[in-house]
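Why do we care about 3D structure at all? Because function follows from shape, and shape follows, mostly, from sequence. That is the central idea of this module. The next example makes it concrete: a single protein chain, its amino acid sequence, and then its structure expressed as tokens.
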Amino acid sequence: MNIDRFEGQWHQVKGQVKEKWGKLSDDDLDVIDGRVEQLAGAIQKAYGIAKDEAEEEARSYLWGLQVYAWTDQLQGKWLQAKGKAKERWGKLTDDDLTRINGRADQLLGAIQQQYGLDEDAAAKDLRAFFHDVKELMA
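And the structure:
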């Protein structure tokens, strides 16, 4: 997946990142400021692992946090967002949208399956969707 900068509020997830990678200092986290490349570099240095491995760990972990945050936002607003999702992805059936029930990971998977997209393309489309329905999430 392609996530170059954590799209949530970095200060809200610094604690989770610190918990995951306890060798990272508070100064490291301040320098990282949500940038995946910086996080990967700090992980690589602190844990002595290969650059590619550190980047994959960082991207995967932050992507999981992003999907979790989106799901949290969608859960309470799914009835309103469901209509927007149906407009955007017309191939998704009412049954699909009912099954998804605001879970961003399920929505991502359905977009990939129905439209034959890889994870990066589906994630990009999902990010655009969240940008478009941001006012619903408030």
